[in-house]
Amino acid sequence: MKLSRRNFLWMSGLSMTPLVKRPSGRQKDASPGFKQRIKSSSFDGWVEIDFDSLAWNLKKIQERVKVPIMAVIKANAYGHGQLEVARFLESRGIDSLMVGKLQEALFLRESGMTCPILNFGPFGAQETELIIRNNISQSVFTSSVGGLNSAALQLDQKAQVHIHVDTGMGRAGLPYYRALPFLEHVSKLKGIEIAGISTTLTEDFEFDREQLKRFLSLIQEATQQGLWLGRKHAASSSALLTCPSAFLDLVRPGITLYGYYPSDETQAEDALNLRPVLRLKSRVYEVKTLRSGDSVSYHKAYTAKKTEKMALVPIGYSDGYPDQAIEKASVLIRGRRYSLIGTITANHMEVLLGHQTAVRAGDEVVLIGRQGQESITAVELARWAGTSVYKILIGLNPLLPKKCI
Length: 405
Description:
The chain folds into two domains: 219 residues, TIM Barrel (Alpha-Beta Barrel), CATH 3.20.20.10; 127 residues, Lyase, Ornithine Decarboxylase, Chain A, domain 1. Helix content is 29%, strand content 22%. The strands form three sheets. Strands 1, 10, 11, 14, 15, 16, 17, 18, 19 and 20 form a ten-stranded mixed β-sheet that branches. It is elongated, with a radius of gyration of 27 Å.
């Protein structure tokens, strides 16, 4: 018999012919869109968002700055769930929201959000009408403002803009030393309303003050020429902790809203007594007994030297947990810390339990958060992985189920 692919599959028991005959008659749709599809397994990892902690952080920031707050909810609200966070902040009367991409702003509008939204990200000529019709304020600093003006005139509306000035960040923004002619030009556009002027500080303590000096000097010169610039804003989370003179007309907190600080120094000081908002959890899928000499994971990453127990937890780097943390990381089960062994793979991690253990399948596993008297913060996980708290939070898979508590 010629060994064709079909014959090989038949001989190896892998034939594509069903072993059980399909019943006759019309069958229910089993596609991913089927309305009875399970959203997530009871063992899947999930994220919990503590709105009481978010409200606490917002209150502490408001008490410190005493000016309106433009909450930064870019990058899926730093991993916390953009729509969930936006709705909560809107219910708390937030002044405005800032996103990093136009699609984020459009998503919020399509989801029913009505509060002011500033898109700090870029836009194309084909998107100008969408910006205006959806009442989105747009950050501008290039000639693309002309397309926004033309679209606004065609719609018989005004496009709101915040002019962004580069005072030393060297990134987005119009260089401060040639910004005045641009301000004059935009002020004359009939379809444009200047709602604000902004800059981004470098978070270098001394240079921030030089940047602020450049920014205020430009504003003063423009004001003396009779230009209306709207609200002035420069302070993000770092400056609201270190540079009160940068508060101006509003501040733009990001990481501090979510219970963390922008640097190791400010994290250690904890000047605002912030509370982490996010918890990352999963469950023990199976408890296994390793014999002496048994190995775990790819390339025999761990080999047991004695009889010991191991918990299999179905969460991994595809969920955003950093595989670089394997050498130092631990998790919480039943209020105790347990070390990870083997490797962190796309969908799994292994937890060393020792010889005697009360851990059972179904037990809750805390990867970020508190359990009993123990806690693991995103800062601690970032240190284990040799990265930043920003990358830990933003790197979480947005498809992880969220429970708002």
